[in-house]
Write a structure and sequence with these properties.
Blueprint lengths: L9 H4 L4 H4 L3 H4 L17 H4 L8 H20 L5
Length: 82
């Protein structure tokens, strides 16, 4: 069982089998934290090609919420650099 709360990569969070990982550019280029940058490439995310777009992806939604929460914390503490 994967600890989804502490997963550092999309393939861990999504519990992708090894054969799917090996076809995935996020795995190959070690970009599992921000895989959506690679998802639409010609040889992009194997899950994206099956119709599961990033907008509906649980990993994308989790990471997006993490980013929003971090921005809110920075704004409240006055550490926002813009």
């Amino acid at each position: 069982m994967v600890d989804k709360e502490n997963a550092k990569n999309c393939w861990e969070f999504m519990e992708c089998p090894k054969e799917l990982q090996e076809k995935c550019p996020a795995y190959v280029y070690e970009m599992g934290n921000e895989c959506w940058f690679l998802a639409k490439l010609e040889d992009g995310c194997p899950r994206y090609k099956t119709g599961e777009g990033c907008i509906d992806c649980p990993w994308f939604l989790k990471k997006g919420q993490d980013i929003i929460n971090n921005l809110k914390i920075k704004r409240k503490s006055g550490k926002e650099n813009m």
